[in-house]
Amino acid sequence: xxxxxxxxxxxxxxRDRRVILxxxxxxxxxxxxxxxxxxxxxxxxxxxxxxxVLRSQLASLEGMAAEARRLSAGAAASTGADSLAQARVxxxxxxxxxxxxxxxxxxxxxMIEVRxxxxxxAQWLDWLAExxxxxxxxxxDAQVTRDTAGMASARVALARPQGESRGARP
Length: 170
Fold this sequence. Notes:
Layout: H1 2-11, H2 14-77, H3 83-98, E1 103-108, E2 111-120, H4 121-135, E3 138-146, E4 151-159
Antiparallel strand pairs: 1-2, 2-4, 3-4
Helix pairs in contact: 3-4
């Protein structure tokens, strides 16, 4: 096939060969422009248009993150001496919303102690996970005894995290 093409090429007049070469070169330039140059150029222009919007969104997100850190630090700092009473109220509300009636909540020193008698173990675990998330307290001691299948009696002691035990540290 190549041999046949070369024979036809040799049979062409020099002027015809020049026209074909110039046409092929023009097609290569046009193809290169539309396939290589134009998409890159349009992409660059699109990025230049989007970049200010993206930068403003980034600044907004950074501002929100700073505000979240400030609010989180404020919440940690507000966990002072009276916050155990507030945490007790939160725990009592979470017990009511979970439908747990026979629980005793009391403040013992720097901890809040909650006692349960004969309740479903799964319900107790669900409550404990939700209550520790809501009140920002951590479990420091727990005693669970099995009463019957699926039922348990428990005592759990909750306290503030170490960094919050004496207020926010500098």
